[in-house]
Write a structure and sequence with these properties.
Length: 477
């Protein structure tokens, strides 16, 4: 049997392993959602689900959703409308398509999803997807016996899902994600993450190291460690007593991961300025594999707004931190997130943000108009900034960031940079990879260099990428 889900509800629980079923996952949001989508596919693989590139022939579709801004959440409902038609068409042919909504919208608005889209079979939060096989089985019995309707699992379980995920994972390729920390206890005024992902939790060092080894064995040469507050990661040392004490911070973990054979590059994202400790700063000085690029969101350059946001640091604290980081690693390139028009933001506050950007000089940055999120403190604050004003400020800020990005890229022209090649380029005969500073780099070169790190002479800088020529066809490491 291929391509159709068993029509007989009760056969589903035993359907695993009897025939190939197709799984299509649509992912929105942060890199942690990308990682989760891969892991959900891993969890379903023993039930014979294999990925398919389109929902058209899928036996199960998972929407892995993001709630961070209003627009991100709205996309879910328009996609559901489209999928409903596919599901109806499938049922008209006597088949079945299981429709699941996962991720942060599912967590925050599970009941609303089922009210607006009652044809959804499963709603599951970001912390429950290790239970997907049982949910799929229960969904198949919906409407029968003691299973009245759709399955909804949006609790925050006592157990960590990571302990229940299969070791076997589909290879991610040359550059891989590894989630090491989840959730957040910081409760910034504007942000849904503490509500959708739950309390801050770190995976044990031993589990992270084991997963990194597996990724390297599958061909990953770069590992990006992920967490909503990745630099808040702390874990018990694998043997409870190694150098540096029994509790490790991220700096110590990076040192260990850098020793794994095959791992050429390490990155981590997203960091909070408050959790940037001295050992992690020293790691930027000491670990060649730790790439000289750091995404360190500041959100605003105004102390008044930073306080209103509950960020717990000042603009000056951030600037001093950048100085320390650059003292440790002179060529460190920086990136940030900015929120424009947080409630109460005046023209003077915005000018302070622009001033901070000029002082730091970013290699790139992401900026967003403030979007009120239900249930967060800032959503109900008076002094909401009018949309037109937000747009005006956003436009000005993005122009400044573009200038800085162009200057950074232009300064790379003429340099020799190591590039880790990850795949074919846009044109025939080209291969593409990333510089240490995360810039995409295109060169003419043979495909067998994919997966190696090679020095490249940068010959031209474009807005978002670089082109170069191979200096020699020999791996750097
Ligand atoms: N933990 C990270 C941010 C994670 S959320 C940190 O503390 O910086 C990713 C980004 O989405 C944030 O940096 C912020 O810039 C943006 N964001 C979060 N909530 C938002 C909102 N309500 N409106 C607009 N942008 C928001
Ligand atoms: Fe959200 Fe980051 Fe603030 Fe946590 S620290 S509440 S994830 S913005
Ligand atoms: Fe979005 Fe949830 Fe990530 S809200 S940004 S998917 S943590």
């Amino acid at each position: 049997m291929s391509g159709t889900f068993p029509a007989e509800p009760n056969t589903l629980a035993t359907a695993g392993g009897t025939g190939r079923k197709r799984l299509h996952v649509i992912t929105w949001g942060c890199q942690m959602n990308v990682y989760d989508s891969g892991r959900m596919a891993d969890v379903l693989a023993p039930l014979s689900y294999t990925p398919t590139a389109t929902p058209d022939d899928a036996d199960m579709v998972i929407l892995n959703t993001c709630h961070i801004r209003d627009r991100a959440a709205e996309k879910v409902f328009s996609e559901l409308g489209r999928l409903r038609l596919l599901k109806l068409a499938r049922e008209a042919e006597g088949g079945r398509m299981v429709l699941a909504v996962a991720g942060c919208v599912a967590q925050a608005e599970g009941a609303e999803i089922l009210a607006r889209a009652p044809y959804v079979d499963i709603v599951l939060g970001p912390q429950t997807y290790h239970r997907l096989p049982e949910m799929v089985a229960r969904a198949a019995r919906a409407g029968h016996g003691d299973n009245p309707g759709p399955v909804i699992e949006t609790d925050f379980p006592a157990e960590q899902k990571f302990d229940f995920l299969p070791d076997a994972a589909a290879p991610q390729g040359i550059s891989a994600f590894l989630t090491i920390q989840e959730g957040c206890d910081k409760f910034c005024s504007f942000c849904v993450v503490p509500y959708t992902r739950g309390a801050e939790a770190s995976r044990p060092a031993a589990a992270v190291i084991a997963e990194a080894r597996r990724l390297a064995a599958q061909g990953a040469r770069e590992i990006a460690l992920l967490g909503q507050n990745v630099n808040a990661w702390h874990g018990e040392a694998p043997d409870g007593s190694i150098r540096g004490g029994s509790v490790w911070g991220l700096g110590r973990l990076l040192r260990e991961l850098a020793d794994i054979p095959g791992v050429l590059r390490l990155r981590y994202t997203t960091s909070h300025p408050r959790d940037m400790d001295d050992d992690l700063i020293a790691a930027h000085r000491d670990i060649p594999a730790l790439m000289p690029f750091l995404h360190l969101p500041v959100q605003s350059g105004s102390d008044r707004i930073l306080a209103a946001m509950n960020r717990q640091h000042t603009a000056d604290d951030y600037l001093r931190l950048i100085d320390k980081l650059r003292a440790a690693r002179a060529d460190l390139a920086l990136s940030s997130d900015f929120i424009i028009g947080h409630p109460g933001e005046t023209e003077a506050d915005f000018a302070a943000t622009m001033d901070l950007i000029r002082k730091v000089g970013f290699a790139q940055a992401f900026s967003f108009n403030y979007s009120p999120r239900p249930g967060t403190p800032a959503a109900g604050a008076p002094a909401q900034v009018p949309e037109a004003e937000k747009n005006r400020r956003l436009y000005a800020l993005q122009a400044l960031v573009r200038e800085q990005q162009a200057a950074f890229n232009t300064a790379c022209a003429g340099l020799s940079l190591p590039v880790l090649f990850t795949g074919p380029g846009r044109h025939p005969g080209q291969i593409a990879g990333r510089s240490p500073f995360l810039q995409p780099v295109h060169v003419t070169g043979p495909a067998d260099l994919i997966g190696t790190e090679i020095p490249v002479r940068i010959v031209a800088a474009h807005t978002n990428s670089l082109s170069g020529t191979l200096i020699q066809e020999r791996a750097c490491a």
